[in-house]
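Slide 14.
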Amino acid sequence: MIDHLPERLDLLATAGAGRSLRGSVPLARLERVLPALASSDGELQVEFELGRDPGGIYYLAGAIQGDVAVNCQRCLEPVKQTLDLTFRLGLVKDEAEMAALPEHYEALLVTAEPARVVDIVSDEVLLALPLVPLHENDSRCQGVLKEYQPQADAVRESPFAILAGLKQKQP
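Slide 15: predicted structure.
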């Protein structure tokens, strides 16, 4: 096990050598994830295992753990989201290999360029974040709901009432 995550990684060569890597990635380096976060403080613990399975498929199996802060969509205050992710990616060079992957693999398209480790981590974190983050059983957040009173609307005329009137005028 190598206790260092490089900036870039030749996935196929590393998988061919059967290597394991681990390290931490600061949240501030995950540029594509930052807009979804309330804070860039902290880091994620990442483990990668690259190898070749008995079927000859090169793979990247990984785990990501850590806490991130996202904005609650109900009260707009930060809410802690604990990440404990595992994934298994089949390394493919083209669409034909992608179609041939067994179901227990997600495809990761590999190009001639070494892959950026932060891009792989960013992809997995973005997939794991909730679409609508909310506080669960938080009194501050529930208080916002209790205080909300919709405005009592006067009887409004339907926007289609004018069309109904025009239809009646036509012979």
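Speaker note: The first strand starts at residue 8 and ends at 9.
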